[in-house]
Specification:
Helix content is 73%, strand content 0%. The chain is mostly helical. The protein has a domain of 49 residues. Helix 4 crosses helix 5. The longest helix is centred in the last third of the chain and has 76 residues.
């Protein structure tokens, strides 16, 4: 191999090593340059094949065997039943069931017989039953009387409350009516006072403009009245009478 070819290979290996920072640079003798190139080419092919395999999509798995599924389900069910700690239901035998039914029927007959005897006692001898249960009957009567009294007292309280409410309403209405009446009276008095003031002013104007001289000389008041005309009271020394002064 010529010398310049080896030098070129060595320089190429050095440039490639500089482009890969993860691999340390190792000085390679000139005699082993061809071996190093072949190893790196082989490594490149291995990496390329590995990348191709990694990029391939995963193959779909084969469907499971139905027999295997049934077997696993059976095993799971058996394990679940074995893990259940609830006690098994024990069915009573025929003798035990018959004995229990007989006891229930006897108890029902005893209760029915007691009720029948009590009814016969009440029907045949009611006075004896009343004497025997006198205190109980007295307590019942007293309870009913007390309940009736409480109900009557409650109704009386409700009636009194209604009456008080109605009285308060009527008193409020009466007070409103009285205030309204007082207001109307005050207004009427105010109107009367104004009317009297106007009449007084008009009478004074009439006296001053009409016959003051004649009335003074004749000794008659001459003041105008509400009914019309003039006052005919005589006065001494002229002027108006005591009512129209």
């Amino acid at each position: 191999m010529p010398r310049f070819v080896l030098i070129s290979l060595v320089m190429l290996i050095g440039c490639h090593s500089a482009q890969e920072p993860e691999q340390p640079r190792v000085p390679v003798p000139n005699a082993d340059a061809a071996l190093v190139i072949e190893e790196r080419l082989d490594r490149k092919e291995v990496i390329t094949s590995e990348l191709a395999i990694a990029q391939q999509p995963p193959q779909s798995e084969a469907p499971p065997d139905p027999s295997e599924l049934q077997k696993s389900l059976t095993e799971s069910t058996a394990l679940a039943l074995a893990a259940d700690e609830s006690p098994p239901t024990i069915e009573p035998d025929q003798a035990t069931r018959a004995k229990a039914q007989q006891m229930v029927s006897d108890a029902v007959k005893d209760v029915a017989g007691a009720i029948a005897r009590l009814e016969q006692l009440i029907d045949r001898r009611p006075h004896k039953f009343m004497l025997k249960h006198r205190e109980y009957l007295k307590s019942l009567v007293a309870a009913k009387i007390q309940a009736a009294e409480e109900e009557r007292a409650e109704r009386a309280r409700e009636q009194q409350a209604k009456i008080a409410t109605e009285r308060a309403r009527l008193a409020a209405q009466a007070e409103e009516a009285r205030l309204e009446r007082d207001r109307l009276q005050q207004e009427q008095l105010e109107r009367d006072r104004l009317e009297q003031a106007r009449e007084s002013e008009s009478s004074m104007a009439t006296r001053s403009s009409s016959g003051m001289s004649s009335s003074s000389s004749s000794g008659i008041c001459g003041a105008p009245t509400k009914k019309g005309g003039s006052c005919q009271r005589r006065v001494a020394g002229g002027g108006y009478c005591y009512q129209h002064r």
